Amino acid sequence: MKVDGTDYRTIWVSPDSESSVEIIDQRQLPHRFVTVSLEDVDAAYRAIKDMLVRGAGLIGATAGYGMYLAALRADDKRILEELEKAGSRLKSARPTARNLGWAVDRVLAAVAQLDSASAIRHTALATATTIADEDADFCRMIGEHGRSLIATIAAAKQGQPVNILTHCNAGWLAFVDYGSATAPIYAARDMGIDLHVWVDETRPWNQGSRLTCWELAQEGISHTLITDNAGGHLMQHGKVDMVIVGSDRTTRTGDVANKIGTYLKALAAADNEIPFYVALPSSTFDWQLAHGTDIEIEIRSGDEITTITGLTKNGTMESVKLAPDGVEAANYGFDVTPARLVSGLITERGIVAAEESAIGKLFEDKLRDARSLHGTR
Question: What is the structure's pLDDT at 375?
Answer without folding.
Answer: 53
